[in-house]
Amino acid sequence: MSQLPDGQTAAAGQAAADHTRQDFWRKENLNFSKPHYRLEKARRIIEKAAGGRECTLLDVGCGPATLMHMLPPNVHYYGIDIAIQRPAPNLLEADIVKAPIGFNGIRFDIVHAQGIFEYVGDVQSRKFAEIAGLLKDDGVFIVSYWNFSHRNPQDYFAHTNIQTIAEFRDDLSRHFTVDRFFPASHNFHQHWPGHKLTQAISMHVNLNIPVISPRLAVEYFACCSARPPRAG
Ligand SMILES: C[S@@+](CC[C@H](N)C(=O)[O-])C[C@H]1O[C@@H](n2cnc3c(N)ncnc32)[C@H](O)[C@@H]1O
Predict the structure, then answer these.
(1) pLDDT averaged over consecutive 10-residue blocks of the chain (232 residues)?
(2) How many domains does the chain divide into?
(3) Is residue 231 part of a domain?
(4) How many A from CA of 61 to the centre of ligand 1?
(5) Distance (Å, whole) CA 30 – CA 113
(6) What separation in Å is there between the alpha carbon of 227 and the centre of ligand 1?
(7) Which residues have CB under 6 Å of ligand 1?
(8) If you measure from the C-alpha of residue 223 to the centroid of ligand 1, how many angstroms do you get, rounded to a whole number?
(9) Domain that holds residue 183
(10) Is residue 127 included in any domain, yes or no?
């Protein structure tokens, strides 16, 4: 039996769990070291949002910072992740479930979060509020979320934040104006399109198809703007 008082036992247990989680992601996020379909689609959306002007971008759950190498030089990249692979001044290692999202008090033109909100447990709404507070007045938030209602669901044991797309969107609307919400791709099985032709088509098609999208969308993208201040 443990000799430690209960509080200390709990604290030690928590520290071990955190350590394991960071160890897990340190290996797992290496799977995202190369540009992939969803990242390429996000790059296009980001470049449109940037419109060639100098701007700052925060990538939440940046993994190996693959996106950094895909963006043009006018987009000044910052990243946060629980497991940073190559430390650099613009990359911050932090557990966003525990620590507030932020980077040296900078306010961002674009915040991007891809493939991370499925892993944030019960703190989603708080994280949206923090991101809303980091955006410049005309800033945009670009976020992806898995379609847990897919007809052939590919659930992953590490997911800790599971809800319907409608629930995810509703929570976004509490903190942002949701300008666009569309499937990143459709597929009969829940993985990104593998064939070059379907990939090329999906890359350009941002359509919500009634009846079909709810069952075949692999995941969704939302493009949100900072909520305008309430009148009066
Ligand atoms: C599915 S990967 C996506 C990586 C990258 N955004 C992409 O799409 O290529 C999820 C990322 O979230 C990070 N992550 C998971 N939980 C986190 C947490 N609590 N705090 C910060 N980062 C976390 C992981 O280390 C990993 O890099």
Answers:
(1) 45 71 96 96 97 98 98 98 98 98 98 97 98 97 97 89 97 97 93 86 90 95 84 52
(2) 1
(3) no
(4) 4
(5) 17
(6) 26
(7) 25, 29, 32, 39, 61-63, 66, 81-83, 95-97, 114-116, 119
(8) 19
(9) 6-226
(10) yes
The verdict on residue 232 lying in a domain is: no
Residue 65: left if φ>0, alpha if ψ -120 to 50, beta else—which one? Answer: left
Report yes or no: 161 and 212 within 8 Å, Cβ to Cβ: no
Tokens representing 79 are 């990243």
Euclidean distance between CA atoms 214 and 179, whole angstroms: 19
CATH number at residue 152: 3.40.50.150
Residues 64, 106: Cα–Cα separation, whole Å = 21
As a whole number of angstroms, the distance between CA 36 and CA 165 comes to 23
Quickly tell me which residue has 């447990």 as its tokens. 121
| Residue type for position 69 | H
Q: How far apart are CA 223 and CA 20, in angstroms?
A: 33
